[in-house]
Amino acid sequence: MSRQRQEHQGIFTAPMDHSYRATLNGDNGNKPRRPGFAGAFPVGDPEPLPAPAQDAASRVFAFVEDLFFLSKIQDTGRKMNVKVEFVKTEKDLAEHMKNNGEEKPSLIIFDLNNANAKPLSLIPKLKSKLKKGTSIIGFLSHVQGDLKQKAHEAGCDMVLPRSAFSQNLPQLLRRHGSAETDFNAAG
Questions:
Q1: Which of these, 15, 59, 81, 137, could form a disulfide with 49 (CB 3.0-4.6 Å)?
Q2: Are the C-beta atoms of residues 138 and 110 closer than 8 Å to each other?
Q3: Which of 160, 137, 57 is nearest to 105 (CA)?
């Protein structure tokens, strides 16, 4: 290889100007993030609701068997002072709702991958029975586009990827957990 050709091999990069670090509040660049985006203004969980009475009716029910999400929903509900009841079947839900008297649930959460709950056949039944006073939210893997479409067609009010569901869980529970919250006025 000729000497002239050797001199021009590779890519030359200029020394980096590190003044951008000042905008990252002293971050030395170990954390990959863009200034002005997430991390610049950390968002905390919303304020918990006032503690409910011991005999208060549950307003949130969940068809979730995945232990990770079951635990996450329980912990978040506890932090937000929202009573969440976990049910396995339509009959189980009907019994819990009968114990609530006249008060209908405000939110029903479905793990759309919970085959035992049969969400795609149960959601339309619940929608016709409970009408607009109850929101039905499903969560699934972000790559399950067909299932997301089918869940919307079945009557799910909102279908979220697992990560978005986890991230928005405190706000969802706060919104639907209070007896004073009127979902129809809020959304």
A1: 81
A2: yes
A3: 57
Give the CATH number of the domain where residue 86 resides.
3.40.50.2300
Contact present, 112 and 151 (Cβ < 8 Å): yes
Residue 100: pLDDT band with limits 50, 70, 90: confident
Q: Residues 6 or more apart from 41 whose CB is under 8 A from it?
A: none
Q: Is the pLDDT of residue 24 over 90?
A: no
What range does the domain containing 124 cover?
Answer: 60-180
Segments in 14-131 forming alpha helices (H): 20-23, 67-80, 90-99, 119-130
At 88-99, the pLDDT tens digits run 999 999 998 888
CA geometry: angle 127, 147, 131, nearest 5 deg? 10
Question: How many domains, in total, are found in the chain?
Answer: 1
Give the global pTM.
Answer: 0.70
Confidence band (pLDDT; 50, 70, 90) for 184?
A: very low
Does 18 map to a domain? no
How many other C-beta atoms lie within 10 A of the C-beta of residue 8?
7
CA distances to 11, 52, 96, 149, 153 from 127, in Å: 61, 27, 17, 17, 12
Gap between the Cα atoms of 66 and 76, Å rounded:
15
